[in-house]
TrEMBL record:
Protein name: Aryl-alcohol dehydrogenase-like predicted oxidoreductase
Bias type Polar residues, positions: 47-61
Keywords: Oxidoreductase
Cellular component, GO annotation: cytoplasm
Protein's organism: Micromonospora parathelypteridis
Listed CDD domains: AKR_AKR13C1_2
Alphabetical list of Gene3D superfamilies matching this protein: NADP-dependent oxidoreductase domain
Residue ranges of every copy of the NADP-dependent oxidoreductase domain listed in the record: 89-383
Renumbered residue ranges of the record's region Disordered: 47-68
GO terms, molecular function: oxidoreductase activity
The keyword Oxidoreductase is assigned to this record: yes
């Protein structure tokens, strides 16, 4: 059994031994984030505090005398998803309606966070029709309308969603439905084009050639600029790409969910397709703010994730222990280290961590300062490879909808 006893947070004496030039901004980020390499603590996910309630991770005390900063250096890193240039770190907006992990502070605060992200250099914003449903797109649309020409908006179709009530049904990627869905998206997003349109999940009843052909028509009409797929089967990727070149694949990828490494990432490299990891912080687990005593609220999706079941989470804490050790070594937060590892895998990977607190947004952006030497990356990955993750990454019904192949025409 792995030793899951966690080491103390970085103290000021340890920070002082590091170069001032290298760590001046990191100290700011640690204070802004309030969760430097700290011991994981018991808590209730989705609970409120005197500040903004966090819907993207649980809370940990600041400790160490950290102070909250109000400014940050602009994120300068850029990456290419196929032909599309985006910021090296994007912003996932799924949690902003307050339906996935529990309530958020307010809708206005979510708009403020999105606009702060733009000010700090983030250009990639990810949403979907079913997030809310519909409400995430509305929030993103209102926030980004004044700066539309400076950002890349990605959204997703693929489910039956009532455009008035938001009531959600099953999969639906029929061509006529895709066109109807896109018209609704354009209204909610307050724009006349979508930069990157994904099929959210493969509809096994609709040939992917029909889906890609429909998106191609929307691109010709000027309503869409780029096409992507989320959690598709390998042959579906090839077949879609042959009809309308894919710009990005969006799959779950993080320190616990490494499935894409075997076949999806090599296929993306072969075809020149970018890759966007969703849940890059493993629902907040790799920020070291969830542990075996954490109790999720009833409306928190994470309560149903097998990784966090009582029988699995203790073994999975070995990943957190590894992050804690390396966070102390490098003077960064576990979340930053997690994102930096993803960025180090391929130059065409752009993760989209969520943030419902400004401090978490700034912490994520601070990942740009975190690098691995070749030896460090090899050693960290070797240690990660030695850990056997317990449990699936999503509940069984959700997992059944991933890696699906569309039927042939």
């Amino acid at each position: 059994m792995h030793n899951t006893k966690l080491r103390p947070r970085i103290v000021d004496d340890e920070r002082c031994r590091m170069s001032e030039k290298r760590n001046s901004r990191r100290r700011f980020l640690l204070g802004a984030a309030g969760i430097a390499a700290a011991p994981v603590v018991a808590g209730v996910a989705g609970c409120t505090s005197n500040e903004e309630p966090s819907a993207d991770r649980t809370s940990a005390p600041t400790g160490g005398g950290g102070t909250v900063a109000t400014t940050a250096t602009t994120l300068a890193g850029r990456r290419r998803l196929g032909p599309l240039e985006v910021s090296s770190i994007g912003l996932g907006c799924q949690t902003m309606p307050g339906k996935l992990y529990g309530p958020v502070s307010s809708r206005d605060n979510m708009i403020t966070i999105i606009r702060a992200a733009v000010d700090q250099g983030v250009t990639l914003f990810d949403t979907a029709e079913v997030y809310g449903p519909l409400e995430s797109e509305r929030i993103v649309g209102e926030a980004l309308q004044p700066v539309r020409d400076r950002v890349v908006i990605a959204t997703k179709f693929g489910f039956e969603v009532n455009q008035q009530t938001g009531e959600r049904g099953g999969l639906n990627s029929r061509p006529d439905h895709i066109k109807q869905a896109v018209d609704g998206m354009l209204q909610r997003l307050r724009t006349d084009y979508i930069d990157l349109l994904y099929q959210h999940r493969v509809d096994p009843q609709v040939p992917i050639e029909d889906v890609a052909g429909t998106v191609k028509e929307l691109i010709t009409a000027g309503k869409v600029r780029h096409f992507g797929l989320s959690e598709p089967g390998l042959q579906t990727i090839r077949r879609a790409h042959a009809v309308q070149p894919l710009t990005a694949i969006q799959n779950q990828y993080n320190l616990l969910a490494r499935d894409p490494e075997d076949q999806v990432l090599p296929l993306c490299e072969e075809l020149g397709i970018g890759f966007v990891p969703w849940a890059p912080l493993a629902y907040g687990f790799t920020t070291a703010t969830i542990n075996p005593t954490t109790r999720f609220t009833e409306n928190d999706f994470r309560a149903s994730v097998p990784w966090f079941s009582r029988e699995n989470i203790t073994a999975n804490m070995a990943v957190v222990q590894l992050l804690q050790d390396w966070s102390v070594r490098k003077g960064v937060t576990p979340g930053q280290l997690s994102l930096a590892w993803l960025l180090a895998q391929k130059p065409w990977i752009a993760p989209i961590p969520s943030a419902t607190r400004t401090s978490h947004l700034l912490e994520n952006i601070g990942t740009e300062e975190v690098t691995f030497t070749g030896d460090e990356l090899r050693d960290f990955t070797a240690a990660l490879n030695a850990i056997r993750v317990q449990g699936e990454r999503v509940p069984a019904p959700v997992l059944a909808g991933t890696g699906v192949e569309a039927r042939r025409p």
